[in-house]
Design goal:
Length: 123
């Protein structure tokens, strides 16, 4: 009998967040479990509690059941992770240089357009 592949807590959290980002409404743990597949209800509930404790999901009261929604969209969460990574390193400019050299032509073009648009933005 084949064993199910074990996924790390980070991978499971990412899967749960992806399920929440894929819809415009809050989801219950049972709905998330059905969408992901292969996870026990208690595992989904534990992951949601961790995400809630980290401030990554919000819990909406829905009668006796709780439904969850993401506190941030995928782009916001990714941007925050990138900012934290830059802040941790000793040379954020060198890190940015390395990052930019790895961009595809399409990503580079999009970055140039964003910089041109936001160049006068003080924020």
């Amino acid at each position: 009998m084949a064993r199910a592949e074990r996924r790390s807590a980070g991978e499971l959290e990412s899967e749960v967040l992806a399920a929440l980002w894929a819809t415009d409404r809050p989801l219950t743990p049972a709905e998330i479990q059905a969408g992901i597949g292969g996870l026990a209800y208690n595992t989904v509930h534990t992951i949601l509690k961790r995400l809630y404790d980290k401030g990554l999901v919000l819990r909406d009261a829905d009668g006796r059941r709780g439904a969850y929604r993401p506190s941030k969209n995928a782009a916001e969460l990714t941007a925050e992770a990138m900012r934290r990574a830059l802040d941790r390193g000793p040379d954020p400019i060198a890190a940015l240089q390395q990052f930019v050299t790895g961009l595809s032509h399409e990503e580079e073009r999009a970055l140039r357009e964003l910089l041109a648009q936001g160049g006068s933005d003080p924020g």
